[in-house]
Design brief:
The chain is mainly alpha-helical and about 70 residues long. It has one domain. The longest helix has about 60 residues. It is rod-shaped. The termini are far apart. About 0% of the residues are buried.
Amino acid sequence: MLGNLGADTRSLNFQDDFVSKLIDATSEGLGSIVDADLAKESSRLQALQVQQQLSVQTLNIANSNPRNLINLFQ
């Protein structure tokens, strides 16, 4: 009876260690995914901001001398 109890205790300790390591690995994996998503979205935001700046500059150039713009399309 005591032998079975010792074996059961070792089995529970092994399962507890396994679950703990699984939780750690899952948390680390999810953290890596979140970091990758943040990096991707940060790059996308930066690209959109550059596009916006270029659009504003283009409009400023076009509005500064509309006659030149009209000549381009004639």
